[in-house]
Design brief:
The protein has 356 residues and is of the alpha/beta class. It folds into two domains: 58 residues, Orthogonal Bundle (DNA polymerase, domain 1), CATH 1.10.150; 282 residues, Aldolase class I (TIM Barrel, Alpha-Beta Barrel). The chain is 35% helix and 21% strand. It has an eleven-stranded mixed β-sheet with strand order 14-13-12-11-10-9-6-5-4-3-15. Strands 1-2 form a two-stranded parallel ribbon. A two-stranded antiparallel ribbon has the order 7-8. Strand 13, helix 11 and strand 14 form a beta-alpha-beta unit. The protein is globular and about 70 Å long. The structure holds S-adenosyl-L-homocysteine. The site of S-adenosyl-L-homocysteine (SAH) has 18 residues, from strand 10 and strand 12.
Length: 356
């Protein structure tokens, strides 16, 4: 019998499900918080009756993942995991240690369909969307393995969260729910390459999440070359969606701008960028491009990035130059790569390889 994926369900959905079995919302809340804690067996839900546990076992499954490989950066700031999902698909997740706590960088898809020219993930192709429980399991497995509590979540791993919109919404519901993982809205970021229609949809939800938009260009001419999505949702349309989001969510947009030598890093680009985004409540993160194999793009020089930053600052834009954590283990922005392994290869993999 096909068992339903209970960890992908919101509290309301679990309530509806178990009402049919003759139980109350109170029990649903108990189940929901056990699942949020990472419980993998219904028998461990000790405050439920044995009868209810048996019924749950018959109808539902609790999804889990396995660690295949773990890499730790030399400075110990970053840990990257290669995880295997139940059907053998692989995704990477990253944990970064900051002074304010641990941030988990979660993948939303196995691979990516967006094909941004400078990004390694898209080069490996696309396999499938992840379920909400597969996204939650990434946080739970790294917490368990490292013995930590994650305080911030960024959907900046493999995939495009807004291309997997419904599951992303479920994931956000469970991570931010007080009775669930209880990570505050302000500590969760959704990153998109610019699916403006979905940004409008998300804006309607009035969630106070941080929206991070991978901008990388000050005009359509450059953006069309770098991000294919721009041909569907051109820059001005994207920026209007961002403005609506910022107003509805009462949150500044974070724009991410990867600095690429002689492509998007001129003084003129900085000036154009500042006038484009001036009326949007936002902050810009400038990141030197991470050079990836098989790509012609190079990162901008430090002095160039500093000048770019200065021009934006002079024009009243809030901007930071970000350091990239975990570059030595290919765990930085755009370096997560989709490595599809055949099922037969899976069985030969040691449970966990640690390299540092
Ligand atoms: N699809 C979403 C989530 C991925 S987040 C998005 O595009 O926002 C990964 C971030 O790294 C994005 O901002 C992406 O544009 C950026 N990125 C991709 N390749 C990069 C590279 N080679 N160097 C620096 N940043 C890169």
């Amino acid at each position: 019998m096909h068992k339903k994926d209970i960890k992908s369900m919101s509290l309301d959905e679990i309530t509806d499900e178990i009402k049919i079995l003759g139980y109350k919302r109170f029990n649903a809340t108990q189940i929901f918080s056990w699942l949020a804690k990472g419980t993998l067996n219904f028998d461990d839900m000790t405050n439920l009756s044995v009868k209810l546990r048996d019924k749950l076992k018959d109808e539902y499954k609790i999804c889990s993942t396995k660690i295949i490989k773990k890499l730790i950066s030399k400075d110990n700031s970053t840990t990257k995991y290669l995880l295997s999902l139940e059907d053998g698909e692989k995704v990477e997740s990253v944990v970064m240690k900051y002074h304010h706590g641990y941030t988990a960088c979660v993948s939303s898809q196995a691979g990516c369909r967006m094909n941004c020219l400078f990004c390694a993930t898209g080069k490996g192709g696309f396999s499938r969307n992840l379920t909400a429980s597969e996204m939650i399991s990434q946080i739970q497995i790294v917490e368990k393995d490292m013995g930590i509590k994650v305080s911030n979540v960024v959907m900046m791993g493999m995939g495009e969260p807004l291309d997997n919109y419904e599951n992303t919404l479920k994931f956000l519901n469970i991570t931010t729910s007080e009775k669930g993982m209880n990570i505050g809205n302000r500590h969760v970021s959704v990153s998109t390459c610019g699916l403006a229609n979905k940004i409008y949809d998300l804006a309607q939800k009035k969630l106070r999440l941080t929206l991070s938009v991978s901008l990388h260009a000050p005009n359509d001419e450059i953006r069309n070359q770098l991000l294919k999505i721009n041909k569907i949702f051109p820059l001005d349309y994207l920026l209007s969606a961002c403005k609506t989001y910022a107003i509805n969510a009462k949150r500044r947009i974070t724009f991410v701008y990867s600095m690429i030598k002689n492509v998007n890093d001129s003084d003129d680009c900085a000036k154009q960028l500042s006038s484009k985004i001036f009326s949007i409540p936002c902050h810009i993160n400038l990141i030197p491009l991470n050079e990836i194999e098989g790509s012609k793009f190079e990162k901008s020089q430090r002095a160039r990035i500093e000048r770019f930053c200065e021009i934006l600052t002079e024009r009243g834009i809030s901007v930071t130059i970000r350091r990239s954590l975990g570059r030595d283990i290919n765990a930085s922005c755009g370096q997560l790569k989709f490595k599809s392994l055949k099922r037969s290869e899976n069985s030969n993999i040691n449970n966990c390889t640690v390299v540092n």
